Amino acid sequence: MRVRIYLEGGGEKGQSKKGLDVKARQALKTFLISALKKQYPYSEGMDEYLNVIPCGTRRMAYKHFSNALERRNRGEDKEKGEVLLLVDSEDPIKTVNPWEHLKGREGDQWERPNGATDEHAHLMVHCMENWFLADPQALRAYFGQDFNNSALSTTHTVEDVLKSVVLQELEKASSGTTKGKYGKGKHSFDIFEKMDPIKVQDRAPWFCRLLKTLDNIMIHKRHNKSTRQCKTPC
Which domain holds residue 155? Predict the structure, then answer.
């Protein structure tokens, strides 16, 4: 079954929007497909079943996701398949229910759309950059030997690190490199090419949750297989 992920990120406005959208779409899609292929059998040929749609702001991602879900529920979705929402949590999560977090978070206060389940909402905790902490070797491979890995948090569960701390650490660690201080968009989507998704899955439970959802939709239903556990349990 096909899946569309409405993503917070990519370009917002201006001349660079299209280029950033393309990079965001390809980078995350390639990263997720790589993770599925490493973790689950029957995942070959999944590339055509996954589409990542960068929406710019988190509010636009929520809006586009809600509209797509409504069209699907009315039977008006020409692409058919499943739709998912993927946004930063921004803040620490105090509940296992993503919609409760998004409803209670100041600045969001989003209602669960009609027909949406918990499996429709996914969070990058606290932000996409937390995933980078799971693979410091990839960061060094991208930024070069002058990248200062010692500036990064070493806690096993990378989702425990606050967003402000993650961004500060990445900027500090990369400040002396030839690529310059870390910047979202400027570096983020290229870093994905170096990363090992297994390391992220091992240290980011909400990322693991996203993979399990994609596996259930794209692979189980396609092959009519029973539920399987991933090689790296969450």
Answer: 129-202
Q: What is the pLDDT along the chain (234 residues), one digit of tens a residue?
A: 889 999 998 865 554 566 778 888 999 999 999 998 887 766 666 778 899 999 999 999 999 999 999 999 888 877 778 999 999 999 999 999 999 999 999 999 999 999 999 999 999 999 999 999 999 999 999 999 999 999 999 999 999 999 999 999 999 999 999 999 999 888 999 999 999 999 999 999 999 999 999 988 876 655 555 444 444 445
Q: In Å, how far from its chain's centre is CA 123?
A: 7
| Beta bridge pairs of residue 196 | none
Per the structure, the count of domains in the chain is 2
The Cα–Cα gap between 14 and 28 comes to 22
Nearest CA to 199 out of 54, 51, 87, 34 is that of 34
Looking at the structure, tell me whether residues 19 and 86 fall in a common domain.
Answer: yes
Judge if 197 and 211 occupy the same domain: no
- Token pair belonging to 180: 């310059």
Can you say whether residue 180 is alpha, beta or left, with left for phi > 0 and alpha for psi between -120 and 50 degrees? left
Contact present, 50 and 5 (Cβ < 8 Å): yes
The sign of the CA dihedral 194, 200, 206, 212 is: positive
Tell whether 110 and 143 lie within a shared domain.
Answer: no
